[in-house]
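pls ignore typos typing on phone
iron/sulfur cluster + seq
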Amino acid sequence: MNLFENKEECCGCTACYSVCPTSAISMQQDEEGAYYPVIEQSRCIGCRKCERVCSFKKTLKTQNASSAAPKVYAARIKDEKELTASSSGGMFTALSDLFLSSGNAVACSVYDTVQYEVRYVLISSVSERNQARGSKYMKSSLKNIFSEAQQWLEKNPQKKLLFVGMGCEVDGFRSFAEAKKLRDRVVLADIICHGGSSQLVWKQYAEYIQEKNRQKIQSLHFKDKRIDWYHPTPVAAFADQKEVSVKQYVKLFNSACAYRPSCYQCPYATIHRSSDITIGDFWGVEKVLPAFYHPKGNSLVLVHTAAGAEVFEKIKPVIDWEESNAEDCLQENLIHPTRRPSGRDAFWHCFRERGIKEVLRVYGNVSVTAKIKKRLNKLFH
Ligand SMILES: Cc1cc2nc3c(=O)[nH]c(=O)nc-3n(C[C@H](O)[C@H](O)[C@H](O)COP(=O)(O)OP(=O)(O)OC[C@H]3O[C@@H](n4cnc5c(N)ncnc54)[C@H](O)[C@@H]3O)c2cc1C
Ligand code: SF4
Ligand code: SF4
Ligand code: SF4
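k done
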């Protein structure tokens, strides 16, 4: 049995791994650090549950996860402290507060400072939620999060669960929840995404800056808003409060060379999704809704289902919002997936043969002009 013909057809969502009744599937890392399902044939009973649950491959063929046009909003959390702590307009905080305040659970991604990786966790408190804020520019490890969410829902039959993550991961969880007859107990919030970058590259980068600074990273902020939302300051902080710029890593991320192959044909680069609600940055909001714009962040919200409309209605007391439309909200990754860079193979060859320092020299070079701009920004803000 073959779950996919080529790597572009698998986003690593773990739905097949989580649904297999005989644990015949394991998720194994390839040389780029991406996880793929591998079937141990001797344990396979041929039930084909893994094939049926794979939504990514099906969505690739149909392209649109849902043909219905979503309701479109610009939105922003009212509390300025929460807004500043969030990557865009604080929708994750508003939505997760709604769930946590009534004893429900949230599955989302945190940066693990011990393993220095991003991974999914199930959370039930505001302090854990605060750790999960911030966009982490790498693909998150899902490990057993689907089964953990299933077990939590089965143990707490009166409760609901909010699952927040990338389009492919959320759609994978949707399909898994449907297979387990739990779909009506979960609310799915997916994030607009331009790519899931290799954790292997981040790990080598993290080791490099930790070695240079002789201490471990304690927190990571790729979209710190000390200047403003349009000019994020990417920093890592150490235990002694010292901060270092991680701009070179952001350049590597933006080069798109380390993205998982499935990202270059991502079927979720559209406003049509199979989630309940989609959140992202409302880039260009200052042009289409000038009175709404706030320098500390503005979210784009796409509401797809009745469950999405219900949660959006419930968070209205804590947010400012304005209705928009499907044309005004468009951005690159709602129109087409990020294109595969022609230098991708050369990037990986360089990474394998010469390591992170050489990769940084070639692909992570922060130009002198950018450095001068940063200094000027610091002086005038
Ligand atoms: C890699 C990446 C690429 C993105 N690309 C775009 C884009 O092209 N256009 C756009 O409009 N928005 C993009 N976003 C989304 C945007 O940056 C914000 O994360 C989103 O708008 C939520 O902001 P917030 O203020 O509500 O959330 P915050 O309070 O900052 O919370 C961020 C949420 O994102 C989750 N998250 C962070 N990193 C990851 C990760 N690696 N994997 C899974 N979940 C994660 C957290 O668990 C949390 O739920 C991207 C985010 C990431 C992580
Ligand atoms: S066919 Fe069934 S037993 Fe075999 S790997 Fe798939 S889910 Fe597991
Ligand atoms: S279910 Fe997810 S992990 Fe499994 S083959 Fe499909 S995309 Fe890959
Ligand atoms: S670009 Fe698409 S396939 Fe890649 S991580 Fe984002 S949602 Fe998943």
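Residues 71-195+261-334 form a domain with the Aspartate Aminotransferase; domain 2 fold (CATH 3.40.640). The two ends are 59 Å apart (CA to CA). more later
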